[in-house]
Amino acid sequence: VMAGENSYYYIDRYIKPAMPDNGYVRAYVSESDVLSDYVHIRFICYGGAVVVFAVLTVTMLYALKRFKRSIKTMEKSVAEIGISKQLDKHMEESGHYKEINSLIKANNRMLDRMNEIFDQQEQFSSDVAHELKTPIAVIKAQSQYALNNMELSDEEKKSYEVILKQSQKMQNLITALLTLSRLESGDKVDMQEPIDLTEIVSAVCEAQQYKSTDCRIEFRITNNGNAETCGNINLVTIAVTNLISNAVKFSHDDSEIEIETGEKDRFVFVKVKDYGIGMTEDEMQKVFTRLFKSDSSRNSNGYGLGMPIALKIAKKHGGTIEVESKSGKGSCFILYLSKNK
Fold first, then answer.
1. How far apart (Å, rounded) are the C-alpha atoms in residues 225 and 230?
2. CA distances from 321 to 118, 269, 270, 314 (A)
3. In terms of DSSP bridges, do strands 24-30 and 6-14 run parallel, antiparallel, or are they unpaired?
4. For 285-298, b where at least 16 C-beta lie within 10 A, e where not — what string?
5. Contact between 78 and 91 (Cβ < 8 Å)
6. Are both 211 and 295 inside the same structural domain?
7. pLDDT of residue 323
8. CA 259 to CA 44: how far, in whole Å?
9. DSSP output for 118-173
């Protein structure tokens, strides 16, 4: 209704018949008050909606950030385990998301199982090597005795020579397996022996030339500074021998092998560079994998254990091995040992 220039809304409520003349009550409210309250209520509703939306957005972003952080932590842990190959290293639970924690627990159980299987495999290799060591030694000794002390026909002599040669190869394989097993089991060895890499390199090169009288490889040895440290001299000699014999094995006749010793940062090193058949990118990625033999070395006398053993020895001495190679051009291996004097 209109009252002057003002508009009003009204509502009637009839009085119960008990009242005289059955009157009613009429309530008025001005249109301006209604509109003012409506605007105020609308402002409160819209403002509340904005606040609720903002709170929900912040909460979701925070939850998403924590979720992404948990995923990143998982990804980092998996990458570290993959790089270090330490299957006994577990992923830590995030504590925020039950589903992610369930996934982490399942992954840790899988790692435990894989680690157990690999331990059993390594133990089996070690046990087999130990069991074969004695009979192979007997076969070798008996073959040598027969060749040195018995009158044999040419055919018999040839047979014994084959037996002796193959038993020596088996003995070398067993020695490599036992060395690898000892390194992987973490057996304690004396790591405080003085080591001079220059002397070791000279001795190994001399042994290589003596071992192969028809060796047509020239060793060029360069000493660029101090190459002395402490460690286990027997293990380091094995590592250097593996690197140099590997270079000899894959070098062409009448070629040379460059060997350099020295120090770099906190390491001493041996660098062995050959100009042989080299490796492809794929072969370089697998060269330190146990029992791996490249296609170009299938007919060689190696067992695919030399490089894995050398790498484990390097890591035991706080170092590593770097490799560069190009197919048809040759390879370069650098053995680093920590200067832990």
1. 16
2. 23, 9, 10, 7
3. antiparallel
4. eebeebeebbebbe
5. yes
6. yes
7. 95
8. 83
9. HHHHHHHHHHHHHHHHHHHHHHHHHHHHHHHHS---HHHHHHHHHHHHHHHHHHHH
**Number of domains composing the chain:** 3
Q: Collect all residues with Cβ–Cβ distance below 8 Å to 244 and sequence separation of at least 6.
A: 201, 204, 205, 208, 257, 259, 272
Give me the pLDDT at residue 21, please: 63
Tell me, yes or no, whether 231 and 197 share the same domain.
yes
| 26-30, 83-87, 246-250: range with lowest mean pLDDT | 83-87
Least-confidence region, from 18-22, 39-43, 66-70, 274-278: 18-22
Which long-range contacts (C-beta less than 8 Å, at least 24 apart) are formed by 120-126? 122/181, 122/184, 122/185, 125/177, 125/180, 125/181, 126/177, 126/178, 126/181, 126/185
Give the E-state strand segments of 162-234 in sequence order: 193-196, 218-224, 228-231
Answer yes or no: are the C-beta atoms of 182 and 174 closer than 8 Å: no
What does the mean pLDDT of the chain come to?
Answer: 84
Domain boundary among 144, 162, 185: 185
| Same domain membership, residue 179 and residue 127 | yes
Q: Among 29-33, 190-194, 327-331, where is mean pLDDT lowest?
A: 29-33
